[in-house]
Write a structure and sequence with these properties.
The complex is a heterodimer of chains A (about 120) and B (about 90).
Chain A (H helix, E strand, L loop, with lengths): L2 H18 L8 E9 L2 E4 L1 H9 L6 E12 L6 E11 L6 E11 L5 E10 L3
Parallel strand pairs in A: 1-6
Antiparallel strand pairs in A: 1-2, 3-4, 4-5, 5-6
Chain B lengths: L1 E3 L2 E3 L2 H9 L6 E12 L6 E11 L6 E11 L5 E10 L3
Parallel strand pairs in B: 1-6
Antiparallel strand pairs in B: 1-2, 3-4, 4-5, 5-6
Classes of the chains: A alpha+beta (about 120), B mainly beta (about 90).
Amino acid sequence: MDPDSVAKAFVEHYYSTFDANRAGLANLYQEGSMLTFEGQKIMGSQNIVAKLTSLPFQQCKHHITTVDCQPSGPAGGMLVFVSGNLQLAGEQHALKFSQMFHLMPTPQGSFYVFNDIFRLNYA
Amino acid sequence: MLTFEGQKIMGSQNIVAKLTSLPFQQCQHQITTVDCQPSGPAGGMLVFVSGNLQLAGEQHALKFSQLFHLMPTPQGSFYVFNDIFRLNYA
């Protein structure tokens, strides 16, 4: 599978899991994974999922506008840079966001999220 | 590697050729946020930036996001290994 297809497949899987059941994101992160969410730094799969499941909304939908990816170096990692809109249930206007993922390969031939940085793009 | 608004460019010479050929004479970047994380065992660093880009003569600034992946040099400095740039349209 070429890198762009891998990135696209990962993004679709990540956001559909996020939108349906945030707790299901736990197996996409590992102990050493890092998330910076709107400037707040969180480390480890458990803490990351605790943060994401505690975000102050019940339902949300991500609409992805752009996905860019590049290989990140000798370790076989991949950088994925996403921008899009986040619609919260009950809110009139969608929030714009940018997010970057650094994916690292697993021994089983899959990927997990090592680095994750999320920012809203305010007007 | 640079991905500039979806266009992929490789190597310092080609990257600088692209950046110097962008269709404006003068610009000013105003940075709003900078986030960083170490990127793994190779000692690299991810830097995620958002801000505004004001072009001379334009009334409204363009919003942008940019990701740099910095790798260490033997001399103790860093160079840009990965660079991804996107405008954030309204």
